[in-house]
Amino acid sequence: MVxxxxxxxxxxTIVLEHHDPALSLTLFRxxxxxxxIAEWQSWARMLAVPLLVAEPDGELHEPFRRVxxxxxxxxxxxxxxxTP
Length: 84
Prior knowledge:
Strand content: 15-25%
Number of helices: 1
Structural class: alpha+beta
Order of helices and strands: EEHEEEE
Largest sheet: 2 strands, antiparallel
Oligomer: single chain
Shape: extended
Distance between the termini: 52 Å
Number of strands: 6
């Protein structure tokens, strides 16, 4: 999230972060959040990098729990289908 400034209403950005901030690269910037999740997931898939969220202090973390390469979440109900 880029906070509003005097001449700007703020934005949501997707950034390819680097340990050296001068080498970080903005991949997507939007004034609203309409397409940001799809862009975020698309870039992560294409670059084979994890989805990370930046906290206000700059700390990065994954927004979803993972078990190996799989995201973990609450169990969903099992679908019942017609069985012969």
